[in-house]
């Protein structure tokens, strides 16, 4: 799940930024089309497609289990593709909105380098919506891995949840559900704290004592 999260962030954010900076070009349209396609394909369908292409046809990776580090590639791609598409779309939308703000236009009018404008003014203000969706994804990684781990016969938490439900092992099921709920709450709490780090306007000011 951690490599899948790194894959989502590492692919989604640069793709969204690149699409926003090349708005209404073929690069932007290609990025949006790839994001929509990746998000529309369910996880189990994407997993079977990757197995057919890279395991059955090309014989590059095994179709299931965990014996070598390379066996991690297909599950990570399956689990991270849809999330990367969502992050790319949110990042692009936030970037496009911020790029049209007056302070960005004023910064460019003052002659600041375009790279500095993007890094200093655009990215921090566009990071809040992206950070929100990343927080939701962190919490849902455990639940989202159920199908992927079942498809690839992966010995993980998701497959354990499926086997526990099938065998009616309620103690394990309840423990895993508590783990999923705890991860959701913790991820959203961390995101709330990071809001103030990224955007100073969201920081809670210290109350002024009454005189």
Automatic annotation (TrEMBL):
Its main location: membrane. Pfam families: BPD_transp_1. GO terms for molecular function: dipeptide transmembrane transporter activity. The chain crosses the membrane at residues 6-22, 34-60, 72-91, 126-152, 172-198. The keyword Transport applies. It is found in: Cell membrane. One of its GO terms (cellular component) is plasma membrane. Belongs to the binding-protein-dependent transport system permease family. This is ABC-type dipeptide/oligopeptide/nickel transport system permease component. The lineage of its organism: Bacteria, Pseudomonadati, Pseudomonadota, Alphaproteobacteria, Rhodobacterales.
């Amino acid at each position: 799940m951690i490599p899948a999260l790194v894959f989502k962030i590492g692919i989604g954010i640069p793709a969204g930024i690149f699409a926003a900076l090349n708005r209404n070009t073929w690069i932007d349209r290609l990025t949006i089309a790839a994001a929509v396609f990746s998000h529309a394909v369910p996880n189990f369908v994407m997993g079977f497609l990757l197995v057919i292409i890279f395991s059955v046809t090309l014989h590059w990776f095994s179709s299931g289990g965990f014996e070598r580090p390379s066996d991690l590639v297909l599950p990570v791609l399956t689990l991270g593709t849809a999330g990367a598409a969502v992050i790319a779309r949110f990042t692009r939308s936030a970037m496009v909105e911020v790029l049209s703000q007056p302070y960005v236009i004023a910064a460019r009018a003052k002659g600041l380098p375009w790279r500095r404008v993007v890094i200093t003014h655009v990215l921090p203000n566009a990071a809040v919506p992206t950070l929100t969706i990343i927080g939701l994804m962190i919490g849902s990684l455990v639940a989202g891995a159920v199908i992927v781990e079942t498809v690839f016969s992966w010995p993980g938490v998701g497959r354990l949840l499926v086997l526990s439900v099938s065998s009616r092992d309620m103690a394990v099921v309840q423990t895993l559900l508590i783990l999923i709920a705890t991860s959701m709450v913790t991820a959203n709490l961390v995101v709330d704290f990071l809001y103030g780090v990224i955007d100073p306007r969201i920081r809670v000011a210290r109350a002024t004592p009454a005189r």
